[in-house]
């Protein structure tokens, strides 16, 4: 079995845990977002993870994956490529066989717990044999977003410390607990209600076993990000938070601006928001913490 302590995703998140800061995990759908990640990371001297959904391979074969992997490998600061919310054995094995992903989220949360655990164990072992770090979601985070299957009528289930231990026993490297976070919109900051006492109990049982990561950050403010990091989150996944200014610009300028100018400005707008987030989670200036 490969030594996963040398895996770049593992090293990035361990350094964050040891240093008491968070690392952005940026969901990317296009060239602009991928390039913005590298520019922001190098500008802020920050580690960063690029997150792709299985949609990326469905849409663009391995081409978008290859681009993202090349950006991570060629950056002057620590960056890694993570497959987020891989919700089928086929998607996980397809991605793993590219040799491009440093970590994969084995998301079997749409199954009942026992089947979730069984499938997760099998797929974690498969990934580990290839040197790929893994993540899983105990409980169930409600909602959906572009590229992620909506839980639909399935009830969101908050993670308990006991469940956290059951999932840690599958061999995962990263744990994504459900503590009141949701995929997609909260429809107002006032509706963001995170159970930090629950997270503290999970953190106590997970200590020195896995790193804890945060999903469902749409509409988070800088203060909420800081609170999550203080509570022990090492990677904080972002989607709409870093895309909102780009999306507004696209709505106003698409088809009315030369393509090169549109791409350059779009990249700048995403980079600007990623840099804002790096300041919020404390990763700015911490690239040197990750031992290469």
Automatic annotation (TrEMBL):
Keywords: Glycolysis, Lyase, Metal-binding, Zinc. Zn(2+) 1 binds at residues 85, 183, 215. The active site is at 84 (proton donor). GO terms for molecular function: fructose-bisphosphate aldolase activity; zinc ion binding. Signal peptide: none annotated. Pathway: Carbohydrate degradation; glycolysis; D-glyceraldehyde 3-phosphate and glycerone phosphate from D-glucose: step 4/4. Binds 2 Zn(2+) ions per subunit. One is catalytic and the other provides a structural contribution. Catalyzes the aldol condensation of dihydroxyacetone phosphate (DHAP or glycerone-phosphate) with glyceraldehyde 3-phosphate (G3P) to form fructose 1,6-bisphosphate (FBP) in gluconeogenesis and the reverse reaction in glycolysis. Belongs to the class II fructose-bisphosphate aldolase family. This is Fructose-bisphosphate aldolase. It comes from Exophiala viscosa.
């Amino acid at each position: 079995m490969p030594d996963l302590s040398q895996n770049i995703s593992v090293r990035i998140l361990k350094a964050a845990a040891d240093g008491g800061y968070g690392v952005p995990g940026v969901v990317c759908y296009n060239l602009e977002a991928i390039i913005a990640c590298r520019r922001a990371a190098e500008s802020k001297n920050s580690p960063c993870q690029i997150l792709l959904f299985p949609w990326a391979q469905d849409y663009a074969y391995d081409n978008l994956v290859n681009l993202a992997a090349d950006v991570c490998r060629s950056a002057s600061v620590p960056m890694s490529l993570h497959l987020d919310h891989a919700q089928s054995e086929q998607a996980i094995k397809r991605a793993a066989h590219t040799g491009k992903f440093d970590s994969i989220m084995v998301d079997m949360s749409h199954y009942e717990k026992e089947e979730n655990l069984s499938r997760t164990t099998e797929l974690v072992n498969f990934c580990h044999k290839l040197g790929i770090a893994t993540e899983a979601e105990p409980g169930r985070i409600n909602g959906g977003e572009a590229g992620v299957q909506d839980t639909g009528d399935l009830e969101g289930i908050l993670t308990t410390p006991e469940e956290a231990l059951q999932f840690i026993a599958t061999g995962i490297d990263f744990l994504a607990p459900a503590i009141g976070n949701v995929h997609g919109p909260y429809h107002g900051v006032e509706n963001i209600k995170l159970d930090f006492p629950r997270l503290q109990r999970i953190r106590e049982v997970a200590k020195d076993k896995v790193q804890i990561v945060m999903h469902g950050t749409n509409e988070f403010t800088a203060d909420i990000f800081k609170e999550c990091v203080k509570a022990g989150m090492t990677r904080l996944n972002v989607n709409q938070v870093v895309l909102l200014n780009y999306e507004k610009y696209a709505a106003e300028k698409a088809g009315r601006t030369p393509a090169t100018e549109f791409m350059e400005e779009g990249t700048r707008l995403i980079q600007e928001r990623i840099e804002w987030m790096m300041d919020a989670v404390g990763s700015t200036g911490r690239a040197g913490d990750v031992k290469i």
